[in-house]
Amino acid sequence: MLDQTAGVVAALLASLARPLHALTTADALWLPPRRPGVLVVGLTAGADLRALHGDLGIALADAFGFEPDRRDFRPHVTVGRVRRGTRVPADPLRPPPALAFSAEALELCRSHTGPRGACYEPLARVALTPW
Asked: Which of the chain's termini has less CB crowding within 10 Å, N or C?
């Protein structure tokens, strides 16, 4: 696994040629839309964040031979999760506070799923260029 982690980190570093500008909060929503289980706050995705996502997908595809994710890119911050089978309110969610912030680093994590939910193991951290 260490060789794969090193390859992912190398692809991540190659994708960080440009800095990320300020991120801003957008709307609150439940994901996935059909069977909500995760409450998230969306983030605006400027051209630099979208480019980073695309470049990283291409670099990882080149390094490991898999296809980039074809789903729409949806940057977000996870706020909370509900237990499986819990019904979430159908009422519209109130908008979150308007915030702007910059990302200092990207972290590569391995997800371990279990009966109590997912646990995330940090594998590597890459500092971002300040804007």
From this structure: N
